[in-house]
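tmp note - Flavin reductase like domain-containing protein
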Amino acid sequence: MFYEPKNGHPLPHNPFNAIVTPRPIGWISTRDAQGRNNLAPYSFFNAVAYVPPQVMFASTGVKDDQDNTKDSVANIRDTGVFCVNIVESAARDAMNTTSAAFDKTQDEFAKAGLTPVDCETINCARISGVPASLECRMTQIVQIEGASNYVVFGEVTGVHMRDDTIVDGRFDVTTFQPLSRLGYRDYAVVDNIFELNRPDD
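out:
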């Protein structure tokens, strides 16, 4: 089948998210100008550069108590920093809890039973005990097509890795099974990996 998104699609559910999968989940922690912590998962997330290391995430929704965006973007606009926490399969329920549209005064760390720990290079909290956290300085926020679509880019200024994730000098994702987003309400875990050598190796 073929369809043009501007004209809609004939299926009962939008297939776009299911086509572009799997997607890593950036569990984004921020702190507002009043010092309140916020935590929310974003599946439009990825690494985008090696040197310096940089990441991005996109926010595509809006909350009534923010100016045409969500808490994460609003907080980053004010403070210029954020932290990306890596989601493991064992934390799926806590991650899902933080996806709720809580009032901006509510602490998602507390709602999900998670412990905030201060970052080292930025004024922000990270999640204690996650496989890895990336402390980031915002480099730009780009508004893209759509009323409330924003892409946030950040340079990684600090990296935390849980000790048990380092095996033979490598960060080993099989030690914690990363959670990824598929389409609709579907998720997947990484539990099997393989190597491919490039032709010019």
